[in-house]
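User: Please fill in residues for this 212-position structure.
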């Protein structure tokens, strides 16, 4: 009897200890990172790669309809969630003359020397985009007459300077949105003078991510 009386409290302690281990693997908070939520998990919804769409235009101004077609033709991964493209201001399929990519197809040019480029992607309700990654480049390559970049790309108001170098190599801009959304407003903004006062930016791809 004395042995049984001794074992009962010990078994109770073991059971309590086992129960304390059912906490989701180290304090995870549902972010899918298993480590306290410090490393959010993003999931690719759709990637649109303009360099692979097969278009041959070099400076054709886009309308709401042709812009939607361009994005559909450029889908390289994921699922197309764009329901419409709106609020277009001087956005082109390819580029004609001037800039770092003269007479070049399979890219998107935003803006002119007199108008900031802009467009809005309206996504299917519930898409809930939380991160946008854009492969982009400034209007000019870095040269002695243009030593610094003056063009920025805004996504839902978040402004970042366009990548800029002598080789004309695009770079990625990452926008982490404060709130998940189904509406993404893109705008080019210029900080120079004269013809450089208006935003002109080249886009090569756009990737959209949700978060959970």
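Assistant: Residues filled in for all 212 positions:
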């Amino acid at each position: 009897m004395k042995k049984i009386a001794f074992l009962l409290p010990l078994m109770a302690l073991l059971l309590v200890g086992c129960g304390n281990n059912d906490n989701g693997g180290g304090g995870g908070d549902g972010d899918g990172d298993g480590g306290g939520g410090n490393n959010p998990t993003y999931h690719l919804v759709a990637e649109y790669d303009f360099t692979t769409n097969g278009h041959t235009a070099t400076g054709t101004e886009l309308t709401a309809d042709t812009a939607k077609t361009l994005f559909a033709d450029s889908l390289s991964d994921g699922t197309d969630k764009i329901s419409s493209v709106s609020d277009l201001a001087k956005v082109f399929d390819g580029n004609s003359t001037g800039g770092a990519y003269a007479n070049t197809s399979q890219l998107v040019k935003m803006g002119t020397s007199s108008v900031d480029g802009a467009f809005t992607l309206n996504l299917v309700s519930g898409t809930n985009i939380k991160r946008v990654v854009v492969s982009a480049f400034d209007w000019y390559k870095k040269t002695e007459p243009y030593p610094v970049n003056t063009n920025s790309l805004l996504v839902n108001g978040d402004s970042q300077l366009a990548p800029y170098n002598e080789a004309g190599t695009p770079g990625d801009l990452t926008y982490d949105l404060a709130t998940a959304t189904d509406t993404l407003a893109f705008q080019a903004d210029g900080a120079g003078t004269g013809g450089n006062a208006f935003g002109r930016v080249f886009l090569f791809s756009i990737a959209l991510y949700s978060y959970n």
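For context: The chain has two domains: 1-37, 42-211.
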